[in-house]
Amino acid sequence: MIEETRASQQEPHLLSVDVTLTDRQGNATPARIVCVRNRNNRKDWIAFISTDVSLPPEEILRIYGKRWEIEVFFKTCKSMLRLGSECHCLSYDALNAHVSLVFVRYMLLSLQKRCNEDDRTIGELFLMMVDELADTTFAQAMQLIVDAMLQTVREHFGLSEEQLLNFTRQFYDRLPASYQRFLQAPAAA
């Protein structure tokens, strides 16, 4: 059974089709095929398939977009930065160090490319990354960091509740106003 839904002008996909995939043993798996226009050739299109039919087409495209960036990263590391072919060590620590160095080289090259080709600032890159993190917002992440820091200070220095509250207020007051808006104000004990 195939159900077809055409996209409106505002939706990013051209077509979304629910299908049933059957393997050689006859086992059926529901899937969704989402077709989009190829950005490099407007007359061409690209199809993505997902076995999670509960996801809307836009979410399937978003997930594939993130996965594609990971694929490009590993392809670049393997092909150009010689991940796996440069180091012939058998030691776990040596292999771990090799992988880490390859990843650092990739990050440095990406940063250099960005600085040479893109007029946006690193601050904008940070804000874009924050926008992409749907699981934890910037405010939640900052609050988690502050809470962990305060818990560590409390345990390490053995502070009373009143001392910890004073410390928290002083810390909070030293933050820029834009950061204070993201964090919870210290409450009285």
Average the pLDDT over all residues and give the rounded result: 80
Query: Fraction of residues in helices?
Result: 40-55%
Tell me the radius of gyration: 24 Å
- The succession of helices and strands, N to C, reads EEEEHHHHHH
Using the alpha-carbon principal axes, give the shape: extended
Structural class: alpha+beta
How many structural domains are formed by the residues?
3
Low-confidence stretches: 1-11
Q: How many distinct helices?
A: 6
In whole angstroms, the N-to-C terminal distance is 62 Å
Strand order of the largest sheet: 1-2-3-4
Task: For the structure shown, list the relevant keywords.
189 residues, alpha+beta, 4-stranded antiparallel β-sheet, 6 helices
Summarize the structure.
The protein has 189 residues and is an alpha+beta fold. The protein has 3 domains: 53 residues, no CATH class; 51 residues, no CATH class; 45 residues, no CATH class. The protein contains 6 helices and 4 strands; from the N terminus they run ββββαααααα.
Describe the structure.
The protein has helices at residues 57-79, 92-117, 122-132, 138-157, 161-174, 177-182; strands spanning 3-6, 15-22, 28-38, 41-50. It has three domains: 3-55, no CATH class; 80-130, no CATH class; 138-182, no CATH class. A four-stranded antiparallel sheet has the order 1-2-3-4, with helices on one face. Mean pLDDT is 80; it is low at 1-11. With 189 residues, the chain is α+β, with helices and mostly antiparallel strands. The protein is extended, with a radius of gyration of 24 Å.
